[in-house]
Write a structure and sequence with these properties.
This protein has 153 residues and is α+β, with helices and mostly antiparallel strands. It contains 5 helices and 4 strands, in the order ααααβαβββ. Strand 1, helix 5 and strand 2 form a beta-alpha-beta unit. Residues 149-153 have low confidence and may be disordered. This is Serpin domain-containing protein. It comes from Camellia sinensis var. sinensis.
């Protein structure tokens, strides 16, 4: 399946997600979210899942395999999230990562997918005692106020 067909298939999934969010969460309010971000995160979760979860996710994401989702996500990450460069162009980014308790480890095959396909961060954290994440490992906090985006670091 080529990239265009994959994108068309996933557009239907994104529209279904958007419809559900608008009808349930944003009925009488303003809401900004990214169906693409949600799709990429669900694809990443699919890559690390086993039956029956993987079957449910593949059905929801309208895909035949995790490999197809990984291929699509890899192409999208390379195309859409690339820096537009000095000549301009599209630049889009979002926080994409995996956090796992420090007492556990990621399977090497999943860690490889996280790093290479999704270009996501992976960090070990202390979920047991709910320790504070060191400042240098925290992601910036984004806030929208008066139609301006603020980044607190």
């Amino acid at each position: 399946m080529d990239l265009r067909q994959s994108i068309n298939r996933q557009t239907g999934v994104s529209l279904a997600i958007a419809k559900q969010v608008v009808l349930s969460e944003a009925k009488d309010s303003n809401l900004v979210f990214s169906p693409l971000s949600i799709h990429v995160v669900l694809s990443l979760i699919t890559a690390g899942s086993k039956p029956p979860t993987i079957d449910q996710l593949l059905s929801f994401l309208n895909s035949k395999s995790s490999d197809k989702l990984n291929s699509l996500s890899s192409q999208l990450v390379s195309l859409v999230f690339a820096n537009g460069g000095p000549t301009g162009g599209l630049r889009l980014s979002f926080a994409n990562g995996v956090w796992v308790d420090q007492s556990l480890s990621l399977k090497p095959s999943f860690k490889h997918i996280v790093d290479t396909v999704y270009k996501a961060a992976s960090n070990h954290v202390d979920f047991q005692t709910k320790g504070v994440v060191p400042r240098e490992k925290q992601l910036p906090i984004h806030a929208i106020k008066d139609n301006k985006i603020y980044v607190v670091q």
